[in-house]
Design goal:
Layout: E1 18-21, E2 32-38, H1 45-53, E3 61-67, H2 74-84, E4 89-94, H3 103-111, E5 117-120, E6 126-127, H4 132-142, E7 146-157, E8 165-166, H5 178-183, E9 193-195, H6 213-223, E10 225-238, H7 249-266, H8 272-293, H9 296-309, H10 318-361
Parallel strand pairs: 2-3, 2-5, 3-4, 7-10
Antiparallel strand pairs: 1-4, 5-9, 6-10, 7-8, 7-9
Helix pairs in contact: 7-8, 8-9, 8-10, 9-10
């Protein structure tokens, strides 16, 4: 859920519906800006902020928090922190919720970041290593060819439904390419530090390319290496109110398919085969969801999309699509038969009665 970047020494323009709370004691030219967006995170935001304030660095940094008019106590918590740490924290307090799934809050917060590097951290996650910022800033200093660096994290389930585990599977603990990012993104937002100059001014952000952390990483991959640091330095929290973790599975797949369509167009279809395969890989489990729910219309819609994307069946066999479509139809057929059952029973009884009458008139023969 991120934005685009704007490296500037001038103070960014704050729109009327947003109030900035800052102090003259803030560093004039921070090397790193920490981008943090938050909404209804009263149970988590303090731990996120504390994990930033514990960072041990030999450079100045600022924490820029975009608070999207929460309905709980989140705003009061961040205001209290800013008063206590005025030389570290800048607040962007919106007078009303900006909507768009938090994307406008992300955009405004990112634009306000002034650092050479921008570290990303959402208000419900947190860092665990006090050397995290120093480690990633040193890495980017030493590797000018890298436009973005990231590390691994632990996944924590708030409801204890699953045991904690590493965010990245073994095969993705490595540097990434544009092709690899298109096929399978999987970089934790909290693990990312971006070289600010590698992302264009928001005014030049490509039309039709939605602002997201996935898009940011892809834009960075055009400018340099996407480098992996083999350390676990944070925790990604899964809970119902999360930006991504709380989203229903079918909505995630739909969202990813839409993003991939935008990426394919943005790259002028240079990676068309990769994008098609990636979309098909998400359509199949999406159809599984619709088949389970008996949603015939959406199952058929995405089956047709799959056939358009992969007419030769290289990535998804036609037989598998057919089985999923049939599975989706079965609940509907069952509902139809159930609805007609009383009528069928009445028809059967009428026929049986007429047959009995004829037998009686015929003398019982």
């Amino acid at each position: 859920m991120l934005p685009s970047s704007l490296k500037t020494q001038a103070k960014p323009q704050i729109l009327p519906e947003t109030v900035e709370v800052s102090d003259l004691r803030l560093p004039a030219c921070p090397k790193v800006s920490i981008f943090m967006v938050t909404y209804n995170h009263e149970n988590f935001i303090a731990q996120a902020i504390d994990s930033v304030l514990m960072q041990q660095t030999n450079f100045d940094y600022e924490l820029v928090i975009g608070e999207d008019c929460s309905t709980d106590n989140t705003r009061q918590i961040v205001v209290d922190y800013q008063k206590k740490y005025p030389s570290k924290i800048r607040l962007l307090l919106h007078k009303k919720n900006l909507g768009e799934g938090g994307r406008e809050n992300s955009r405004r917060t990112y634009v306000s970041c002034r650092g050479d590097y921008i570290a990303l951290l959402e208000g419900d996650d947190y860092w665990t290593d006090p050397q995290k910022l120093q480690t990633q800033a040193d890495f980017l200093d030493a590797h000018p060819e890298s436009s973005l660096c990231f590390h691994d994290a632990m996944v924590h389930f708030e409801d204890s439904s699953s045991a904690p585990h590493r965010f990245l599977p073994p095969e993705l603990r490595c540097d990434r390419t544009t092709e690899g990012l298109l096929n399978r993104y999987m970089i934790a937002t909290l693990a990312t530090v971006v070289r600010a100059k590698c992302i264009p001014n928001l005014d030049k952000w490509p039309a039709g390319l939605e602002l997201s952390d996935w898009a940011i990483a892809l834009k960075c991959s055009e400018q340099g290496r996407i480098s992996y640091i083999d350390k676990i330095m944070g925790v990604y929290r899964r809970h119902e109110g999360g930006t991504w973790g709380g989203v229903a599975q079918e909505n995630r797949y739909r969202r990813q398919i839409e993003l991939l369509q935008g990426f394919n167009k943005y790259f002028s279809y240079r990676y068309d085969d990769i994008c098609r395969r990636a979309m098909v890989d998400r359509i199949i489990p999406l159809m599984e969801c619709y088949a389970t729910d008996g949603d015939v219309a959406n199952a058929a819609r995405y089956a047709l999309m799959c056939l358009r994307l992969d007419p030769l069946g290289r990535h998804a066999s036609w037989s598998k699509l057919g089985r999923l479509a049939v599975r989706a139809c079965i609940p509907a057929l069952h509902r139809g038969l159930t609805a007609r059952l009383p009528w069928s029973i009445r028809l059967y009884r009428n026929i049986k009665s007429k047959c009995a009458n004829r037998t009686t008139l015929a003398g019982g023969r």
